[in-house]
Amino acid sequence: MKIKNIILALVISLSVSGFLAAQQDELSPERKQAIDSLALEKVRDLSKYVSIIGNKNTQWSEANRVIDRAEELFMAGAEIGVSSLARPDVLYYNVRAYFERLMRLNYDRVEIEWYKIEYVSDLQRQPDGTYVGVITIFQRFRGYDREGGLVYEDTTKKDITVYVKRKETQIGGRIIGFWDVLLGDIRVKETSR
User: Fold this and answer.
1) Exposure of 78 by Cβ count < 10 A (0-12 exposed, 13-18 middle, 19+ buried)?
2) Are 98 and 86 in contact (CB under 8 A)?
3) Which CATH class is domain 27-192?
């Protein structure tokens, strides 16, 4: 009988611990709003980085420094989609390859503008405790020749997956928990003139 009581106490203890841990991983409305703001800010930062890297006047060393900063915004293994009005398929590149390709585009001047940056899917909790959402952006791309003539222009709707994970760090000998926001794949939804 004692063994059954010990096992029952252990099961109850583990259940309560699991419930408390799950409660700690829940997002309060205030915390969710702060995380939403951070995710949107990271996407706006990425927008600035894309413009700097794509700008033909940006020096090579500066562009590489910005690529390093941009990579820090993403989860490992994330991919970015590239589309063109000239072909029906979308090509996907790992983050660094995408930015290096952007630096080497064969235009004398490039303008890249992101606008209508907004959440289209609210953060949803996954079984592993991670929250996942989607931010949609519109990207206007223009490529010019040496004389300043417009050679190519398109507008692309893209969905950016956002991951919010609970992490811990040690500060002054204390372990502090925090929510970290990372960007995932950037998927092309549609490309038009």
Assistant:
1) buried
2) no
3) alpha beta
**pLDDT above 70 for 10:** no
Q: How far, in Å, CA of 175 to CA of 178, rounded? A: 10
Q: Can you name the residues that pair with 124 across neighbouring β-strands?
A: 132
pLDDT recorded at residue 32: 86
Tokens of 87: 């072909």
pTM above the 0.90 mark? no
The Cα–Cα gap between 184 and 172 comes to 31
Q: What is the mean pLDDT of residues 148-175?
A: 94
Element holding 13 (H helix, E strand): helix 2-24
Q: The dihedral of CA 114, 72, 162, 91: what is its sign?
A: positive
Candidates 136, 101, 100; CA nearest to 119 is 136
Which tokens sit at 125? 């909790």
